[in-house]
Structures
1.
Amino acid sequence: MKKPIIILIGTLCLLQQTLLFAQYLPKAITAYRIGISYDKTSNLIFPFSIKSVDIGSSSVLAQKAQGVENILQLKAGEQHFKETNVTVVTGDGHFYSFIVNFTAEPSVLNFSFVGDSTEKAIIKNQLLAEASYTTIANTIKGKRHSLHKHVWTEKIKLSLNNIFIKNDIVWLQIGITNKSPISFTPAYARFFIQDIKTAKRTATQQSEITPLYKTPLNKADKHYTQPYVFGFAAFTVPKLKELIIQIGESEGSRLLTLRVSHQTMLKIKSL
């Protein structure tokens, strides 16, 4: 009876070793096959921010979409290049592998790896869809004014009514009140941080900041207050600097300029 028992034990030990060894065998990762063009840009949309990109050939041009963390744009640097590969690692540690070929007319230009296959962009590592921005902006429009920081120019008032932060995005609630007999039609809005000017001969340094989101610059009719909401990647205003808000009409006919101090920016509230 001892011999069969010894054989059985040996078999079990061998099976255990085989299973243990199998746990450490490399797993094959399926590579996605995509075709890219010389004249068109392909977009790869990931659910998390892109941390690393490796391109197998200089014939493939790759870059992250400007101002966005999770969209990789691919384009052929030359026509009819030899098959190559691209690998991407995202913020959640996920690894993506792609086999890339030249295709004059790709049948698909945009590839989404987001769970619900919708087009979304990650700004500052926050997943926000355009609808989310609009929802937040509409909520802010209905908030009661708490700052009342304003300036009058030619019977038109430019005011900063609230400052909020949500999802690492700073939101400014701004209003234009028109007391003039002529409607005010904004053509542009500019925002920049600059040094507080302490002497006439001192050079002033400016750093412009661009909104990630803005409500339409609708016309402010006479005797009417028009609300606007702007969202920015989180920023601060140092003590010796100030935020400048400028909203102007086309051809510089009327320009509204509001200066916002460091102390005012400290009144920011969570939304």
2.
Amino acid sequence: MCAVAVALATAPAGCSVGPDYIPEAAPVPKTFKELKGWKRATPSDSFPRGDWWAFYHDPKLNFLIKQVEISNQTVAAQAAAYEQARALIREAQALLFPTLSASYTATRSFSGLATRTAVASAATGQPGTFTSTFIPALSGTWDIDVWGKVRRQIESNASAAQVSAADLDNVKLSAQALLATAYFNLRTADALRDLLLRTVQEYKKTLDIVRNQFNAGYSVSMADVDVAEAQVFNTESQAINVGVQRAQFEHAIAVQIGRPPAELTIARRPLSGTIPKLPVTVPSALLERRPDIAAAERAMQEENALIGVAVAAYFPDITLSAVLSWSGNQPLPFKLANEMWSLGAAGTQILFDGGLRGAQIDAARAFYWQSVASYRQTVLLAFQGVEDELAAIRILTQQLAVQQKAVADQRQAVQIYLTQFQAGTVAFTTVVTAQIQLLAYEVSELTIRQDLFLASVLLIQDLGGGWDVNLLPTKKELEEDFSLLPQLPPNRAGLRLESPKNPPRP
């Protein structure tokens, strides 16, 4: 019986009723609109697998992002969901095997005598008879998966586990991207603080010039001194205020690596350098590089297999049963006696259900086409994301070059106005206006540089990071990974999953 069960467990899906899965076509463009003159390349030689953040050559960022996979709690929750999905495969596989059970019955009975005989027997001290009966028994039932209903359910659960595995990788990628975004925002805050403090020093030099002009009796009023001094204090206030955003970015990074904000301190260092040159895959390769696309595609097979489960309800259920028991007058150890056994087979076919099964099949097909639409929408959004960030990087790069020229010209204008002010040919308000404009230009340049780094992070995320569809566990691996005993298999997220009897220590 077990040998037949194993054979059925490994039977090909072709023996199952319902449609076999054929992936639906995705709306894939031939080229990216924002890339001109690129050459075709296979996924393996266009974008490396692994630590995508290494492109930035930042040791601190490298250290922080690696903590996401270890202790991020959102990732931990999804890892547990993946383990649950694997357990559901084993639940479905258990239905391929017979159910065996054992029972043991002990009975103590009394048999009395007729009234007249009982009176006579009472005089002799024998009022009746006590009898003990012990019946050990073994029984088994087996619902044979003739039409492949269980195998279709296993197929669906295996696809669902692949969906969960892809979701796990997608959650990790999203958490890593969120951390990288917070990190570059923090570095931008450091750069802004440094810019404001440098500006404060320049304003103090201007304040000294104004005071000297006022003390020397030149055409400078006390109001000009007050304006120069207020400019210093206002810029110092802005530099202090930057600390609020920096603290919040640091706290966000701490949460992403699963640590309380009080336990993380990141040394100050301004944003510097340029974004890396990122290899962009051909559009068709994006289907193999995005875990969310892989999850949507696996969801189609999950729903397709459930159509087969619904179709199998039209066919009769065939059940085998067997009972073997013994009866004796002694408890264990006992002498076997009065052996009894029975074998049976039963078939059940629903003759009328008011259209229930037909409605269930229609619902299963509707769910499948819903998953097809979701898959195609996921693909479209993926291409939109890549095009958005490619456009952003191209346009921001052009804008940064122009803005740098504006900063250089405005800085030169400030020096000229300051020289003219010292010569008494322009009013101090002209210098103040030029300095305010210079600071605004410099802040704008820093913002553009920040946007470039953030766009590069989003582009890497839209390209799937270092992920590849080959990282998904195969259906064969998932379907062979089961046991008849409870187990907690190793999880794919690198996280330690504790049993309820051993809660994690803080």
3.
Amino acid sequence: MSETLDFSRRAYVAEEMDGPCSYEELRHCLRHLAIVNRITLAHQHTLRWLDRMLRAPHAADPRRTFRLMDIGCGYGDMLRRIERWAQPRGIHMELIGADINANALRAAREATPATSRIQWVLGDVCTSPETQEVDLIVSCGVFHHLDEHEIVRLLRWMDSTAALGWYVTDLQRSATSYRVFDLLMRGPWWQRFIRPDGLRSIRRSFRPEEWATMCAEAGLAASDVAIEPCRPARLCVGRANPNAVLASRVHESGSTALHREPS
């Protein structure tokens, strides 16, 4: 690195993909981000969480449809991955992708097969009518783009909205992550935002203690929130609704499983 960077504190630096750019350039960037997500196994953590969360309620009622919403869905690659994961397992899901960027949703629609039933929503998830009654809320690689007060607001909303639980996968700030990404993304084939924005993203991301502070500010008890470093270079934060935890425990004990119906 040509400069000494301080990873003990979050950096407040702008990313090029968050600024004005053409639709074609944004779409190109999102396509390459989807490749980076595959290379770094970004979606595997969400899929493992969904497997844990849905095992008991799906066993209790295999016909039940679970409503899942993705905050900041971008190119929609995580939702398409979830759709492919759920189908062979016989898990019925209604998938909703929400984003505040109309061009990102346009790119997501174009990349999604016509047979898909994913619904795309433009707007603020906290106020959009289509995102208010859901079982599960997920997000991947989005929260480091937000200010702390925006994250606290979202945490409160997610906790009051998701009937079963919510799960956020984001980057973890560290010098090692920065150096490894810097090396891996050196190449003329990557869209021009990928490497510089990725490095800025790592500097903008959070550490476990910072997530714990934001969760506390949102009124969430430390014992109710799981904050887990996950390889490679990810930090996952989630909470299961107590009723969902009870359902899982009852099911695993061999008794009749309980589940909470969405309001």
